[in-house]
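agent> call fold_tool(seq_1)
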Amino acid sequence: MSDLRYWLALNLVEGIGSGRLRSLYRYFQGDMAAAWFASQETLLNAGLDLETIQNLQRWRKRLNVEGAYQRLGELGIHICTLNDEHYPKLLREIHDAPPMLYHIGDLLPTDIHSLAIVGTRRATTYGQDVARAFARELAQAGLTIVSGLAKGIDAAAHQGALDANGRTIAVLANGLHEIYPTEHTQLAKSIVASGGALISEYPPTANPDSRHFPVRNRLLSGLSLGVLIVEAPKGSGALYTAAAAVEQDRDVFAIPGQIFQVNTYGPHRLIQDGAKLVTCVEDILEELNLEQRTGIPPHPRIPRPHPPQNTQANITPSRPIQSDDPIETAILGCLEDGPLHVDDIAFCAQSDIQIVQAKLMVMVIKGWVEEEGTMVYKRL
C-alpha cells in the first residue's frame, strides 16, 4: 500500500494533528508506515503522550486503512505531503508548514506567484467591490488569488479571480467533505471547475471549529508572496493573517478608507506599522516584481479590453459597458454626455455622495472612468 494511506490513517487518530504529524515525520524520517505500526515505547520517544498512543492503538484495530483511502479518492480529495514535489514551494518555507495537505483540484508550480486577499466577513459594499476589482486585475496579471472562502471580502476576492477566468485557491478551516459556509458551496464548485483548488490541513471529516481559523490563517500568507488587507475591524482574523505574513517575511499591503469607518481600523493600523498603502494593482505588481523575484514567469497574462483612444474629444462615443450594480449604471449614464464633478454625479445618480465616491474609485480600477481634474470624472 502507498505510504499516503498511513499519512491519512495517522491524521484520523484523535490527538494527531499537524503538530504531532510533523513530529512523527521527523522522528521516523518520513516513513509514516513505520509510525503507524510502532510500539508504545517508540511512540513515546517520538513525542506522543500516552492518551494519544492509546487512541492510535484502538484505531489500528478499527480502521480499514485501504478502505479509508479509497473513500477519499471517491470524494475527489487528494493528499500532498512534504515528501511530494508538488507540495507548494512557498508554504514549504514557513517554519510550521503542515506536513500534509488535502486538496481538491491541482497544485501548480506557477502558484509561486500568489497573493492572498483577505478581510472582514462584515464587509461594506465598497470593500467587496474593491476586493473583487483588485482580484480580477491581479488575476489578469497572472497571479493566483488565495483566500479563505468566508463571507464578505474572501468571497469577493475569489469571485474577482473567476471573473477574469483566473486561478484562485480557497483554504478551508475544516475538512473538505463539506463546504463552510454552506452558502458558498457553488462558489467552491466554480473555483474547482475553473482550474483552481480547495485546500485544507484538516482531515476530511473535521467540522468547522473556531479554534481552526487562526491556525488556518497562517496558510493563507504561507501560500503567498504577500497579503492584501481590504477591510478589517479591530480583532479581525485578517489581522492574524497579516501578523503571520510579517513573521513569514511576506509583503503586507493595505487598502485605505474613511477614518470614521470601523472596517478601516485594521488597514490603517497596518499602514502605520509599515504595510504598503495601495490604491491600484500596479502598486502591488511593482512591489512584487514577480519574475525577477521568483525566477519563474507568472501565468500567461489574460488579455483585457482597453478603452479606445479618443482622437476627437467629446466626439467619439463611449464604449459600451454593462454593470450589474444599479448605482454604477446610473453613474455611467450621468457621464454619457461628458465630464462631471462628483457633486453633480451624486445629484444626477440620486445617490449619497459618499457611496458615489466609493463607486467611482472602483470604476477607476475597472477602467470605466477616470479622474480628469480635482473631483471631476469622465467616462472612458
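agent> call fold_tool(seq_2)
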Amino acid sequence: MLRYQIIAALMGGVFCLLAELSLAADTVTDLAGRTVKLPDRVERVILGESRYIPALAILEGEHLPDRLAGLLPDFEMTDPGGYAQYLKAFPSLADIPRVGHTSADSFSLESVLAMGADLAIFSLEGHGPGAHNRALIDSLQRAGVAVVFIDFRQDPLVNTPRSMAVLGEVLGRQDEAEVFNRFYQQQLARVTGVVAEIPRSDWPSVFLHSRLGRHDNCCETMVAGMMGHFIEAAGGKNVAQGRVPGVSGVLNLEYLISEPPRRYVATAIGSRRYQASETDHAYVMLGAGIDEQTARASLLRATDRPGLRAVKPIREGRAMAIWHHFYNTPMNVVAVQALARWFHPAAFGELDPDATLAEFYRRFQPVPLDGVYWVTAGEAQK
C-alpha cells in the first residue's frame, strides 16, 4: 500500500517535470528513460497503438486527426464500440493508413517511412512495437523519425500522469496535459487517501478474472501489472498475489472454489460485435453503446458456466464486471474509484465514480459518454 500512498507525491513531481520540459523543448525523457531529440515541428505522427486515440484527444481535442499519419488498427478491432464513436465524430480516421494489424510483428517499417512521419508514439509494451524492439527503433531514428515511449499498462497509476506530461511536450500541448494531470491527481487522491486509513484486515479478498469468456480454461488473472494494480489501490487483497508470478497468469478454478474470495471481478472484452468467443463462451459486454441492462445480463450469462457457478461470490451475487480496456487508458482512475466504492461502500459513501466518468468525458473527450463501464450482478452496488 505504501506505493499508492506516495503516488500523489510522485504526481506532484509531474508538474515540476512539465515546467522543466517547457524550458527544453528540443528534447524529452520518455517512459523508457530515453532522452529523445524532437523535430522542430511535429506534423506527422504514427501511433503504435490506436487505442491511444482517446489519450491524444485529451490534448488535441477537435484537432485530433490533423497530425495522425498512420496507426495500428487495434482500437477498431478490440473496442469497436469506442472506435465507432470516434469515427462518427472524425470520419477522416477511416482514411488514415494502417501500418500493421494488432502486433509488433505486423508493424510495417516501410509503410511508416513512406508516410513521411516525424514522430512515432509507442507503448513500453502492448499490441504494437515496444521498448524491446530495438532494431525497429534504431531504423526509425536513423530515418529521422523520433520515437517516444509512454505507458498506461505496466504501472498505470504511476505512469499515466508521466505519460500525459510527455505527450503534452512532444505535441506542444503542455497546458492541456497539466490541466488533465491535476484532475487525475485529485481523483486518485480521493481513493488513496481514504484507503490509507482503512486497516488492511478490513480489505476484502478479491479475484480478478481477466477477459472472462476468452479461454476454455479457467481462470486468467492479472497481478503485478495492468489492472492488478487497481485492486490494491482500491483497498482489495488480490488473491492471486503470491500465487501467480509476474504480470498475469492462471489461478486454478479448484482453488477459487475451495478458498473462495470475498469479491469476484471480471474484466469485460465483449461488445455489440463480439458477444462470445469462437468456442461460444459468453463475454461480458461493457463500454460505448452498452446499456446497464445489457451489461448485467451479459455478466450473469458469462458467469453461468460449469465451474464458475460453484465459486461462492458468484453464487451469492458478489460479482462485478469492469471494462477491460481501463488498463490501457488515462480513464483508469475512474476504474479505481468504481472498485473502491464497491469494496468499501461505507468508507466511500460520498464518492460518485459515475460523476467522475461524466466529468472526464465532458472536459477531456470530443465524443459523448454513451454506455456503462462497470456493472454488478445485483441491482445495487453491494
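agent> summarizing second result for user.
The radius of gyration is 20 Å. Residues 14-24 have pLDDT under 50 and may be disordered.
agent> awaiting next instruction.
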